[in-house]
Amino acid sequence: AQAQMAWHDRWFASAGVRAERIDGATPNAQRSLLPMLGAAHVRDLGDVVLKLRGAFGTGIRPARSLVRTSSWMGQGQFAALTALDPERQSGTEFGADVVFGRSALHMTRFDQRATGLIQPVASVVTTVSGGGRPARAMNFQLQNVGAITNRGWEFEATTRVSSLSVAATVALVDSRVARVASGYRGELRVGDRMLDVPSNTISVSAAWARGRWTFTSTAIRAADWIGYDRSAVGTVLSTGDEPVRSLEGTSLRSFWLRYPGVTRWRAGAQYRLRDGFALVAGGENLLNVQTGVPDNATVIAGRTLTFGIRTVF
């Protein structure tokens, strides 16, 4: 249910609540009421439109939806999810939007708190290979970490000049552990940065269209995150020189690594033919960056070029 109100076309407010029932993730059904509040003020300052806004909201994600996205070392098995609560996130955001001519600036400050965040907690098991030799492997149990705070800023600028459109975004995020859940056996502690969360992300995109031609290009850079030194972990697993406990609990902190960042660039072109047909060409990962994201052991697809004909019918 949601209600909206406007006054003199300058003040706007909205409030609502969403009821959710989750079945299957745990033995018993989970029910949640998720509130939402929002307010905005709009003013015309000559040729400039200024909008001030604020909002509060709550959202959840059931544990079962995380199984498909949870991955660490790309191996091992996950324990059952019967004891996991859904992730719940609530918080506020405040921002301002300025529109002038064909250009716009957007700024948002967010302050959120997530509880029940789920992380795969590792343990080492020893098995016997086909040749009769002992081999180590990782086993995982998904556990609720506790509470996480996400604070930061988001900036966006867009403009259009003739046939050219340009947009740029900057996101600055500080994601840290605020509280550790009882029973959590992983390596995270209060005050730690959350793993695999870049502290800053920058993107720039441009599009040019004239006549039958359209060209697009986007560059994205994610930088400064803490992740696992998967290369070192793999070495320990394969050689067996280190004790098992070195890959469990707080000992895993010694395998944390700070990653400087990576830049990805893609571009495309299209030429419209008659009768709904178009010639298309595109390129992904044009800088041919294959390592360094999300860690130092993963190799991703290199530069990829595609050519074809597109039609709509």
Measured on Cα atoms, how large is the radius of gyration?
24 Å
Q: Residue-averaged pLDDT, rounded?
A: 88
**N- to C-terminal distance:** 38 Å
Helix content: under 10%
What are the low-pLDDT stretches, counting only 5+ consecutive residues below 50?
67-80
Overall domain count: 1
CATH third-tier fold name: Maltoporin, Chain A
**Strands ordered across the widest β-sheet:** 1-2-3-4-5-6-9-10-11-12-13-14-15
Question: Would you tell me the structural class of the helices and strands?
Answer: mainly beta
What shape does the CA trace take? globular
Order of helices and strands: EEEEEEEEEEEEHEEE
Name the CATH superfamily classification.
TonB-dependent receptor, beta-barrel domain
| Share of β-strand residues | over 45%
Summed up, the helix count is 1
Biggest sheet layout: 13 strands, antiparallel
Q: Tell me which CATH architecture applies here.
A: Beta Barrel
